[in-house]
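Chain X:
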Amino acid sequence: MTEVDLQKEIRKIIVQELIPDMKIFEPNTFKGFLQDIPLDLGYGDETEIVDKNVPCCIVKINAGEINGASKPETVTVEIIIVIKDESEDMSGYQTLMVVINRIRDYFTANVGIQNKYRMKYPIKWGINDNTIAPYFVGNLITQWDIERMPFHDIARFL
């Protein structure tokens, strides 16, 4: 039960459980990435790289905090959602809100993951005002309590 395991579980829930039945992204496939969109040096300019990977979510480990030797670690995980919507009425933010709401509602109803991770309130969300059409970017910020791995167990991951 590490921070990276939590990150992978959140991505799996979003990509495999929450988004597949949403017809709004067809014919594209909603992708999920850990920490950032992969760098593809052979693909082209930045716009081409983004277009290849959108729509997507990026599940980022942002921070952690330990408040005592016997207490769980609190991990902050940010879920960034990126969509492309070329409609003339600039309604992409509405599609973005549908995705944010679906993720938010899931984690509100299921505050734990596999009895390993427990989400803490509040869930924060937002829409980035600095994005440039046709891209729309939003995020959710969550905090999770996870049991810390004893130092001797870490060696098996190295």
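Chain Y:
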Amino acid sequence: MMRSAPMKLAVVAFLLFILPAGAVRAQDTPAGVAIDIEPGEAGTPAIQIKRGGKLYPLRQHEILYANDELVFPPEAGSKSSVKVLVDAQRHVTLNAQNTKLPPANWSGLQGLLPKLASAYRWLYSGGAGESEGPRNAVSRDISAELAPSVLPGVKGKLLISDDAGPPLWIGWTDGEAPFKITVSAQGKLITQAEICGGDPPPEDCLREALLPNLPAGTEPLEVKVTAADRQQWAKTLIRQSILKSPQSEPPGDLGTFLAAVQLLDQEGGAYALESARILASIRERYPAAQKLLERMRNGEVP
């Protein structure tokens, strides 16, 4: 069923709140979402949106409108393209030879817009509490003896699913390499890993770990990270049944990504690590998942 005009304008008004001021007019109709930009590496020429006579940089999960046109840099050549979701089940690919979207299909996008807007917010908004300093998706409950910049994260409880699920992802920003990570249940070691080992440790140490082989069950898990400079962080993860989002619409990695984003919107970040588990499972195939994990690791979300 089509949405009424007031409802349609209400959704567009919400999108105006998260997009650049003046970039979108309320009468424009959402026509698609940029779900994959190639090439996406830093330093490559930027693709831009021509909107209302002005140019804006195109970003992952940008919502595009009926009158938008993409501008591809000449030096990018034939390798530059954008995959645009135009309804729940279909996407089109734009490039230098095909820069305009097909006619807007409002009915095909309206059900996804709230989820897509939330994804855009998590990918690009600074979020609340920026003045608190470095944060990440591990824990902001830091032991009193540790420096306040070491292994911060989410205040309060952290929840993950009670099934075996995908590997557990954690990320942090500080401490000296190498790092030892252990996961235990009721005092029994389940798995462990060393991150950034070697003599000397790598200078470009990526401070994150992916921990497989977690058994199903409801026993709480204790995750402990110990840095070479003896700084240590430990957190108990509560395990419970978590309702899986239906993946029928949209299908594939986009549906998986939006399911992870929905978890971030619940209970003040308590599901951040469960969200990260899902994102890590598609990061190699879906650039927005990789970007959101980087923001988690760097303390920009949740």
